Amino acid sequence: MDARSKSFENRRNAWRKLSKESVTDASERMALLNIVSKIANVELKRHRLTHGLWGWDEEDLTTMRAYSFRPRVEFDVDFDFDGLMELGFQIGEINFQLTFPSGKKEAWEAVWEAVGEANEPDCSFTYIDRSWLRSVMVKNAIPKRRPRQGNPRKHKRG
């Protein structure tokens, strides 16, 4: 089995073979094979981006390029901001599906479990972004206040 190979392609193919041969539940098998296909679709771009040498296009300084001049893996590919973001989103979606196979509900449960553990005295989870927390809490749970406008009040010294 190529699962221990250093070649990512061999490991991906081993995963595909194991999924086809070992997973008996048809919907779970299809979900795993779907993830393998998504990984295969981004593999070459990710590899070039990660392992290539970086430069920029002399005619358009907003376009980055990744390239390699090694004979077996020679390439020269342009990357703009939108392309980099799209690749990042695709990889993020794959990571999400691998981490939370049941979807958003499982992800939210994990977040709330982490928040609950934050109240434990020996917890290392110490920070939650206030704006994010406000966005996920029930609207009525937070009193509505207008932000202060103008100069702050001056207190009289007495």
What would you say this structure looks like, in words?
The protein is mainly α and 158 residues long. It has a domain at 102-142. It has helices spanning 8-22, 26-51, 81-99, 104-117, 130-136; strands at 53-56, 64-68, 75-79. A hairpin with a 7-residue loop joins β1 and β2. α2 (26-51) packs antiparallel against α3 (81-99). 1% of the residues are buried. The mean pLDDT is 81.
Please supply descriptive tags for the structure shown above.
158 residues, flat, 51% helix, 3-stranded antiparallel beta sheet, mainly alpha
Roughly what percent helix? 40-55%
Class based on secondary structure composition and strand pairing: mainly alpha
Uncertain residue ranges: none
Give the N-terminus to C-terminus distance in angstroms: 82 Å
Q: Main β-sheet, in a few words?
A: 3 strands, antiparallel
Strand order of the largest sheet: 1-2-3
| String of helices and strands | HHEEEHHH
Beta content comes to: 5-15%
Q: Which shape, going by the Cα principal axes?
A: flat
Mean pLDDT over all positions = 81
Q: Helical stretch count?
A: 5
Number of strands: 3
What radius of gyration results from the CA coordinates? 24 Å
